[in-house]
Amino acid sequence: MLSASSRRLRCYIAAASDLCASNFGPNSAPNRYPIHKRMPLSTPLDKPLFSTISSFISNSRASSFSEEDAIVNQILSDLENAAPLLESSYKKRVFLSSKAFNRVLVAAASERNDLSLVSQLVHVAVASRRQPLNSTCFLTVAKAFAKSDDCGELLRLTKQVMEITSPNMTIINRVLFAFGECGEIDKALLIFAQMKALNFVPDLYTHNTILEILGCAGRIDDMLGQFGSMKEAGIDPDVVSYNAVLNNLRKLGKFDICLFYFGEMGENGVQPDLLTYTAMIESLGRSGNVDESLRLFSEMKVRRIRPSVYVYRSLISNLKKMGKVDLALKLMEEMNSCDTEFAGPTDFKRNKRL
């Protein structure tokens, strides 16, 4: 049975359009850029760790350590006025490091437990367009809102962020991911619903983030529905989109559906990467189709994609289960005598542009 807080959140999601209209009024100016006119973002990032956004311009400067420490101490000693003090610093073209800014966020969230203050700080930082924000900052914000069932402040903040940064969805995408990382699935979906209700256009990376959030939460039907909606909106899935779908289907043993989407991936000209091959080799092997898994393994090596120890072990295990012991031993010898490095954890990071 759902808890009272969960039921309340789901009501928020279902009524996102009404909430947005009533709370924010008719005078907003949401992004109505059509999808085909949006400029693609080209900065590659690895998830789940997002790199820091630094947008300093020539006539602004980061503070020195002593100067920064003095500013932070001043703000922490007068948290009630943290937002105007921060804004005053920005007007002098002095910006904090992301680490220092996060100290202020933590104080507002933990010491004062003040969501309004957290929102003000984020709003001032984003509006400056020069304050560096890293994944830790967004995670602090998500954790602060995770403690409350009142989503009104969250909706106000995310609307402000989208209005400031539109049509670039980078910041809001990172907010979405942070809520997903905290396990705040309903709140992440609430933000996504608000985005659509206010006619802000989700980009490819927004959709990829939502796919991963739904998949990790085990909401496979919702994930596949979102995948379909994404294509209907005219956004072509990339390798990251397909990997999210394939990997989460694999985890639940939906091997036949994996084959369908893998075939669709090829039809659409999307080249598989290490994550794709890993998911499919595992799926095919566990479903008893070891010959096809071996074919993909060979194809991966021809394409100079380094296999991981995990791929070798998966193949060897499935070959043994099928009684193909000789092939299993041959692969084991190949693995043990391999003179090149295996793919490691960094190779399994999902290459997502944001």
Taken from the alpha-carbon principal axes, the silhouette is elongated
Average the pLDDT over all residues and give the rounded result: 82
The radius of gyration is 23 Å
**Total number of strands:** 4
Order of strands, widest sheet: 1-4
Main beta-sheet strand count, sense and barrel state: 2 strands, antiparallel
Give a structural overview.
- There is one protein chain.
- With 354 residues, the protein is mainly alpha-helical.
- The chain has a domain at 241-354: Tetratricopeptide repeat domain (Serine Threonine Protein Phosphatase 5, Tetratricopeptide repeat, Alpha Horseshoe).
- Helices cover 64% and strands 3% of the residues.
- It has 18 helices and four strands.
- The chain has helices at residues 4-14, 16-24, 65-77, 82-91, 98-111, 115-128, 135-146, 152-165, 170-181, 185-197, 204-216, 220-232, 239-251, 255-267, 274-286, 290-302, 309-321, 325-336; strands at 44-47, 61-62, 94-95, 350-353.
- Strands 1-4 form a two-stranded antiparallel sheet. A two-stranded parallel sheet has the order 2-3.
- The longest helix is centred in the N-terminal third of the chain and has 14 residues, at 98-111.
- The chain is elongated, with a radius of gyration of 23 Å.
- Residues 1-10, 12-61 and 350-354 have low confidence and may be disordered.
